[in-house]
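Holo prediction. Input below; ligand is FE2/S2 (inorganic) cluster.
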Amino acid sequence: MEFVRVARSGQVPDGYVRRFYAGELEVAVARLRGTAYATSNYCTHLDCLLSSGKLVDEGIGCSCHGSVFDLESGEPVCPPATEPIRTYPVKEEDGEIFVGVTEQDLADGGPRRRGAVG
Ligand code: FES
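Structure of the complex:
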């Protein structure tokens, strides 16, 4: 596992989620109650972008059909999603956000939109 710098801390204000890349790996980085979290950017329901979603008290909410995922465990806490999203360890140092990924994660590019054309 290595920690890859993905953003400046100021790019993810409290209550926001944004898309970043660790190498080829697409991640959603969110900040809830001051703490930064990194997850897969694709909802496990029908692959909507979680970086287009909204943070709620319980975690990250998908804007498409309202699934909510816990930011630490990735578990769905509101339906319709039933499968967890991937979560990645996060470190913040000197105003920068680092996401912990494996070589395999970087090589695979992580979960992507299934069945997308092109
Ligand atoms: S795609 Fe996220 S709730 Fe349906």
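The pocket of FE2/S2 (inorganic) cluster is lined by residues 43, 45-46, 48, 62, 64-67, 80-81 (CB under 6 Å). That is the main takeaway for now.
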